[in-house]
Amino acid sequence: MIEAVGLTKSYGAKTAVYNLNFQVQPGKVTGFLGPNGAGKSTTMRMMLGLDRPTSGTVTIAGQPYHRLPNAPRQVGALLDANAKHGGRSARAHLLCLAQLSGIPASRVDEVLGIVGLQDVAGKRSKGFSLGMGQRLGIAGALLGDPQVLLFDEPVNGLDPEGILWVRNLMKKLASEGRTVFVSSHLMSEMAQTADHLIVIGRGQLMADLPVRDFITQNSTGFARVRTPEGDAQARDTLVRVLAEAGGQVLTEPDGALKVIGVPLPRISDLAHGADVRLWELSPHSASLEEAYMRMTQGAVDYRSTQDPHHAAAPQFQQQQPQQPFQAGPPQQPYGLPQPQHAAPAQPAYTPEDAR
Ligand SMILES: Nc1ncnc2c1ncn2[C@@H]1O[C@H](COP(=O)(O)OP(=O)(O)OP(=O)(O)O)[C@@H](O)[C@H]1O
User: Fold this and answer.
1) Single pTM value for the model
2) Which InterPro entries match (predicted)?
3) Which of 16, 75, 257, 284 has its CA 20 to 30 A from that of 6?
């Protein structure tokens, strides 16, 4: 298990990580998410003893990294896939790491095989593609057959097959009872890989909960409704009754209505009561990526000047082409000091499985 308690790191006036408290459990893939500059790499560096906390602690199996006996055999990490001597072959690079850590040379060919680099083991790594470099970095992390594995953005530069391979590798490592901690910018990727999520923004904890709970707490269920084409009166009538019922009604690019805050059976009843025929009434849920974007909206450091949220209040907006007919109850903006934990939420209607 990895445990952070009050973990804080400042670089001069810049606080990169502030008062992080979380545990990373074995037997699970834990996704570590946050926008650029959120403090993910800083946190991982402190886990590995490469940076010293300004205050607080982070321990692995109850000890700070530097006090772990034979640390490279207990903890494997991929922090920077470029951290290798480009003039050395993949095998020579791994042999060097193995020797430094007292790991038998026979393990080198094993890990080269695991990551699929056996055929290029004798080639210099400076000629490697980004994806091959990532594989070599992962091989280095696996070298000591450790129980705890940290991966900083392991799918960077990998093609779809490589991404699938990493995803399956993480799951396999976790299923063997190991602690697997993986950072990423991509919630969609984590949705398919992680069992648990730790989300940080501007160095602070924003969420610490199972992936499924994250979806339930954050996805806003909505209905897509279409009235007969060309019947503007029916459409307007429906918009009016839905708005009177407290619904938030938006238009989709294809002209359908997106209705938030009114359960499907009620929409059907309201349409029936207003004598409006429906051509479509279907349940939908927001994607996990949308939920993540909404959560971290207020904690994004770098934003294009063309982004509609640039210099705006940190509040989630629905996708752009939609025009609100009537504003419903305001969406809760996520304040930094109120991290989400695994507590039951009460969405208008819960998607059966949004993953
Ligand atoms: N050595 C350092 N000196 C000064 N500031 C630093 C240093 N390392 C990190 N920072 C700052 O701390 C903050 C967190 O950086 P960090 O690299 O940990 O974020 P990150 O979440 O890993 O970002 P990314 O996803 O872009 O890699 C950033 O504002 C960064 O500029």
Assistant:
1) 0.73
2) AAA+_ATPase, ABC_transporter-like_ATP-bd, P-loop_NTPase
3) 75
79 lines ligand 1 (CB under 6 A): no
Architecture of the domain made up of 222-284: 2-Layer Sandwich (3.30)
In 3-state terms, what secondary structure has residue 271? Answer: helix
Ligand 1 atom at shortest distance from the alpha carbon of 51: 1
User: End-to-end CA distance of the chain, in Å?
Assistant: 26
Please name the residue that has the structure tokens 């690079």.
93
ipTM at complex level: 0.96
Tens of pLDDT along 289-345? 777 877 777 655 555 555 555 544 333 233 333 333 333 333 332 333 355 665 433
How far apart are the C-alpha atoms of 105 and 95, rounded to whole Å? 6
Cβ 80 under 6 angstroms from ligand 1: no
Residue 94: which H helix or E strand, with range?
helix 90-101
- Is the minimum distance from the CB of 42 to ligand 1 under 6 angstroms? yes
Q: Taking the C-alpha atoms of 339, 149, 48 and 131 in order, what is their torsion angle to the nearest 10 degrees?
A: -100
Superfamily of domain 2-217: P-loop containing nucleotide triphosphate hydrolases (3.40.50.300)
